[in-house]
Structures are given as C-alpha cells and as structure tokens.
C-alpha cells in the first residue's frame, strides 16, 4: 500500500487531553472597561456574539465604531482533542488581530492573541484548554517559548502549529494584503521524487475552483521545504464534528447529513467532470469552513489525487477503512488494478453511513477514535518498533475480509431512512462497473426529494456568502 507522503493537516498527533464536558469553559476573551475587568466566556455549547445591538449580542459594546453584530466567537473541538477558538468578522470596518487588520473572514484565535475593535475595546484571548505542543520543523526542534514569525513570500507564517505529520506541518499564517489568515502547509523534501509528488498536488489544486474544495492560494519553495498556502478552515474536520455531536449516538440528523452529502457530491462531481479522483476521501479529509450547524464543507488533502481518473491504476493508495473491494484486493494481488472515480463513490457511501449511524459499515470498533488504520499504524507497532503488531495485522485482515464480503449490517435505525439506505447500498456495490456514480447519487430519491430546498440552502449559505466576501 502506498502511504500518503503529503500529510493532511488534520492527520494530527494523538491528543494529550480532551474536553470531556461541553459546558466547561474552554476559552475567554478578557478586556478592561475603566477599572473593571470583564470576560467573554466560551464553551463548546456556548458561542458568543459581540456588537452594538443588545437584542442580538451576548456582549454589548455601545461605541459607534462597532457594528450592530460585529463578530461571532466559537469554541469547537479540534482533531487533536483540544479546542479551536475562532472569530467570524461580520462588521463594516473589521478587527485587528495582533495589530494586523482582518476583515470579512473567519480567523483562529490562539492563546495570548490580542483582538482589538477599531477605536474601541481590546481583548486578550486566554485558552483554558490548550492544544498539545507539536514539533515545529520550520522554526525550531520545539516550539519557541514566545510566538515567532517568518516572512515567506508575501505571507507572515507564525509558529502556531495547526497540525503535523511525518512529512509536513501546518502553521497559521497571515496574508496582510487580503486581510485574512491562511494555512501554510510546509513539506520537507529530501529527494527529487518528493518534490515531484508535492508539485503533483500543487498542480491539481491550482486548476481547481469550487466552493466545496479547499483552495490553494500560492506556493513558495526555499531550502528543503515547499510551502503551500491554503484556504483556512476554522470549524475542524467532519470526523470530529460527528463524534462530538450532541446526540447520544454520535451521529447527525438526516437533514444535516443530507446537506453535507449534497455538498460532498457537488464537489466530487466537479472533480470527476475534470477527470480527477481524490482517492483518500474520509471524514478526516473533509473540513468545516467555519463552526456552526449545517456547515459548509471543503474536500481537502489532495496528496493522493490522480488526474486521468478514468484510467485503471495499479498504484493502490488511501486508507484501508475507506477502500473499495477492488482496492483491497489489489493491495495483496499486485497484478490487479482499480479505478479512482468509482473508489471515491464507495468512500462517499461509507461517509454517508457514518454520518447517519455514528458507526462504520465494516469497521465495527467505536467511533470515538479514528478508524484511520494508516495514520495510526505507529500506535500499533510491535514491541521491537520495526513493524505492525500482530494485533494490528489481525484487525486489518478482519477489516479487509468484511469489505471484500461487502455485506452491511443495517440496524433498525435505517428502517426510518429507507431512501438514504438505498443510496448507501447503491454506492457500496461490490462490482465497480455497477456502482452508482456521483451523478447517479445526485439523482437518487433521497437527494431529489428535497432538491429544491437543498439548492436554496446552498445558494443562500454558500454562494451568496462567497459573493459578499
């Protein structure tokens, strides 16, 4: 199996701690009004709104320079088990983050960041729950004691690490010209073939423009690093969103799952029309543009994507839990091949099953931890550290056998979701030539029955927002 040499910025290190009680204070923004100290308090269940209108804002600033609703603040779970604190600017004249002007965008607030309202109050962000300290390869072997910055091209890259893997780290960066934050994905390249693999991802992303695909803004190369500057998403990933959902069963309601699936299918339709297959679709690689219910989602991490996706390939890649039967068989039988686009459709079926049931159709383990067998192989190594443990190999073998067998155990929950079940079954068809395509899925009864409402919501929440940005 070919492992992804370009780690997604949501394939993160294991958490050192998690926020177990959603009502516990995760962060606060502290300010002074005269001789009085005040704080805007955030928890996973308690976002905050700051502005001039007392009927619409939880914290009121009466200054004329402040908009009626100036900004919204959220705390959401991060893939590491910590918390992402974000601020969405909704004002006329923006905000100042550490004295950098930010306008009409969503930003991440790190511990110690200073947020200033124009001609008004200044707040300091204090994280109560903090992220694990990650290795920061483009700065020092360990994070500096105080936040540091590097100028890379037109961007200011901070030492605040959003995530790291074996080959890449992602840092928070600032685009001063556009008054926004971006994600800087820094990939260490040691060999010429590494550069070629990275530039393949870059070339694919540079041709893509779609509201449901993570956009690439720019690239810079210096020394042993290629830096990819990407659209910043502040809502975490879909896996974390599902598993931290308020429902007791850790699954989404049908309406929200349908809206997310509709976006996923639109993004996939765009890719497949351009003969691009993603080949590593999973909830961890689907990012939420901003916090909140019925989120806009973006397909991310194109390190394994393939152009000319209608052609067969012998280069099997991706995550075992989301591979189709032909991909699993090709892992062990080298003369077998598979096709990327039907593989994406199989993965989409697995994702839909997870969203609606809170469980995996073939991996029967609990969904409270990631089913990503590949990115967690390090945790399953044998005692000598040289390879996977026997326990891991046994689990992987059972998972492969279930996928090849192809039978899905639909619980009684699905009795109320017959149209959704029919779509899942059409996507999880063993023979890929008979498997539903993206267009088949978009024309399924489950989607078409509420297509007018889906298109209206998509236009209102996504297209209109993009036009106003």
From TrEMBL:
Keyword ATP-binding carried by entry: yes
Official protein name in the record: Kinase-like protein
Family: Belongs to the protein kinase superfamily. CAMK Ser/Thr protein kinase family. CHEK2 subfamily.
Record-annotated FHA domain positions: 48-102
Binding site for ATP: 185
PROSITE patterns in the record: FHA_DOMAIN (PS50006), PROTEIN_KINASE_ATP (PS00107), PROTEIN_KINASE_DOM (PS50011), PROTEIN_KINASE_ST (PS00108)
GO molecular function: ATP binding; protein serine/threonine kinase activity
InterPro entries hit by this protein: FHA_dom, Kinase-like_dom_sf, Prot_kinase_dom, Protein_kinase_ATP_BS, Ser/Thr_kinase_AS, SMAD_FHA_dom_sf
SMART domains: FHA (SM00240), S_TKc (SM00220)
UniProt key word Lipid biosynthesis: no
All copies of domain Protein kinase, residue ranges: 156-447
Keyword entries, A-Z: ATP-binding, Kinase, Nucleotide-binding, Serine/threonine-protein kinase, Transferase
């Amino acid at each position: 199996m070919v492992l992804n040499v370009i780690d997604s910025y949501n394939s993160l290190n294991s958490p050192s701690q998690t926020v177990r009680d959603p009502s516990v204070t995760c962060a606060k923004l502290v300010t002074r009004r005269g001789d009085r100290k005040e704080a805007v308090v955030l928890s996973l269940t308690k976002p905050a709104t700051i502005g001039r209108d007392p009927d619409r804002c939880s914290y009121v600033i009466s200054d004329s320079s402040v908009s009626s609703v100036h900004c919204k603040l959220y705390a959401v779970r991060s893939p590491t088990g910590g918390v992402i604190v974000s601020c969405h600017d909704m004002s006329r004249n923006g905000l100042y983050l550490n004295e950098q002007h930010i306008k009409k965008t969503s930003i991440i607030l790190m511990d110690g960041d200073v947020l200033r309202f124009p001609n008004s109050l200044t707040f300091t962000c204090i994280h109560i729950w903090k992220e694990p300290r990650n290795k920061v390869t483009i700065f020092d072997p360990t994070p500096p004691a105080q936040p540091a910055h590097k100028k890379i091209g037109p961007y200011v890259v901070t030492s605040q690490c959003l995530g790291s893997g074996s080959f890449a780290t992602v840092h928070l960066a600032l685009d001063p010209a556009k008054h926004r934050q971006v994600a800087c994905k820094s990939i260490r390249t040691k060999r010429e073939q590494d550069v070629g693999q990275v530039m393949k991802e870059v070339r694919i992303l540079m041709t893509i423009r779609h509201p449901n695909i993570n956009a690439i803004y720019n690239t810079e190369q210096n020394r042993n690093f290629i830096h990819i500057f990407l659209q910043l998403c502040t809502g975490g990933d879909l896996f974390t969103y599902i598993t931290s959902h308020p429902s007791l069963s850790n699954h989404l309601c049908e309406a929200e799952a349908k809206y997310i699936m509709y976006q996923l299918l639109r993004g996939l339709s765009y890719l497949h029309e351009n003969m691009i297959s993603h080949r590593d679709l999973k909830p961890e690689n689907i990012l939420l543009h901003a916090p909140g219910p019925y989120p806009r989602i973006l397909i991310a991490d194109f390190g394994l994507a393939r152009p000319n996706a209608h052609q067969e390939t012998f280069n099997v890649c991706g995550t075992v839990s989301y591979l189709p039967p032909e991909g699993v068989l090709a892992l062990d039988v080298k003369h077998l091949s598979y096709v990327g686009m039907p593989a994406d459709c199989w993965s989409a079926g697995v994702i839909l099953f997870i969203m609606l049931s809170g469980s995996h159709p073939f991996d029967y383990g609990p969904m409270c931890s990631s089913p990503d067998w590949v990115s967690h192989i390090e945790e399953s190594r044998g005692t000598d550290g040289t390879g996977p443990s026997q326990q891991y190999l046994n689990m992987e073998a059972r998972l492969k056998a279930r996928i090849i067998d192809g039978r899905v155990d639909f619980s009684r929950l699905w009795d109320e979701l017959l149209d959704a079940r029919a779509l899942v079954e059409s996507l999880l068809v063993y023979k890929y030539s008979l498997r539903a395509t993206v267009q088949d899925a978009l024309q399924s009864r489950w989607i078409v029955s509420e297509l007018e409402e889906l298109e209206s919501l998509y236009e209102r929440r996504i297209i209109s927002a993009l036009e106003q940005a």
